[in-house]
Write a structure and sequence with these properties.
Helix content: 25-40%
Order of helices and strands: HEHEEEEEHEEH
Shape: globular
Strand order of the largest sheet: 1-2-3-4-5
Structural class: alpha+beta
Largest sheet: 5 strands, antiparallel
Radius of gyration: 15 Å
Distance between the termini: 9 Å
Length: 154
């Protein structure tokens, strides 16, 4: 079955509802004020992200992540990076990546409620750190992205 952008957007919104989104730091793209929608749309108009569905921010609103039906886009202020959803190979909380690389802390010392960045590895084994707000917003973002990866598999 070929999944359309509209179908994927509908499923992502459904999943967001299961995580009680929107919250103070996560939003449905279509519910953003018009000026915010224009800002993001202009910023990555050449990226072909599909339909923008969700926006996750951190408390200062300086770091943000946008889920489209085809791509994830993240950045700080007006600088950004993007990645095709279908190119995602693996996802782990940044804190766990740091533990495995440095060995300086144990899993018990890093509280799950403090996780606020997700490390994504693409098919070329490049790693990208994606921001979100800690706690339930982080886990919602992670699980919605997992579903988006499944929906974008051919």
């Amino acid at each position: 079955m070929q999944k359309t952008d509209e179908y994927i957007a509908k499923r992502l919104k459904w999943k967001a509802g299961k995580y009680s989104l929107p919250t103070q730091h996560s939003f449905l793209f279509e519910s953003l004020p018009t000026e915010n929608q224009k800002f993001y749309s202009e910023l990555f108009k050449s990226q072909n992200i599909g339909i923008p569905v969700l926006v996750f921010t951190q408390p200062k609103n300086d770091k943000w992540t946008v889920f489209g039906t085809r791509k994830i886009v993240w950045g700080e202020y007006d600088k950004f990076e993007s990645l095709l959803i279908s190119d995602i190979k693996e996802m782990r909380p940044q804190s766990l990546v740091e533990i495995s690389e440095t060995g300086k802390a144990t899993r018990e010392q890093v509280k799950k409620t403090e996780w606020d960045e997700l490390t994504i590895t693409n098919l070329n084994s490049e790693q990208f750190v994606i921001p979100a707000f800690k706690g339930s917003d982080f886990f919602a973002m992670w699980n919605i992205l997992l579903m988006n990866v499944q929906l974008n598999r051919k």
